Amino acid sequence: MEWVTIGKVTAPHGVRGEVRVYPLTEFPDRFFDLARVFLCRGEERSERRVSRVKGLARGLFLLKLEGIDTRDEAERWRGAEVQVPRAEAVPLPPGRYYVFELVGARVVTKDGAPVGRLEDVLATAANDVFVVRSEEGREILVPAVRHVVLSIDPEEGTIVIDPIPGLLEE
After folding, report:
1. Using one digit for the tens of pLDDT, what is the confidence trace for 103-145?
2. Which CA distances in Å does 11 have to 17, 48, 62, 76, 79?
3. Going from the N-terminus, what domains does the chain have, and what CATH number goes with each?
4. Which conformational region is residue 71 in: left (phi greater than 0), alpha (psi within -120 to 50 degrees), or beta?
């Protein structure tokens, strides 16, 4: 099963086992609709029913999860990722993709020449930037704009670009 990380436990809250969660999703309001989450740390994954959700200041959420009833039990999950199965990810409109769907994709020019593999996507004020690692290990920053990124096919794992002059030069 594939997993999507939607938040991270930052700290326990109070003495009844509640945890503070920092959202790692473009859709933080989804926390109010969660029936269950999976807490993951390393190889350990634990399914927990969500019994209560409260929004806090600074964009944090307070979650009360079944089976975590003391501050000590909540402390044990500090730093854990809050995940849901991939099938429960919020659907995106056509032409929009989650970063995890694109990482690892082969990046090629419109002529089919290999550029490298997508490692990450940086969000900037103007536009996203694809971080591509060439076979030689060089980092290439590709602006994710329409006239540069011609097509994205997450099913095939390919991204086709029309590089601007100087983009692929060392």
Report:
1. 999 999 999 999 999 999 998 889 999 999 999 999 999 999 9
2. 10, 17, 10, 9, 8
3. 3-88 (2.40.30.60), 99-161 (2.30.30.240)
4. alpha
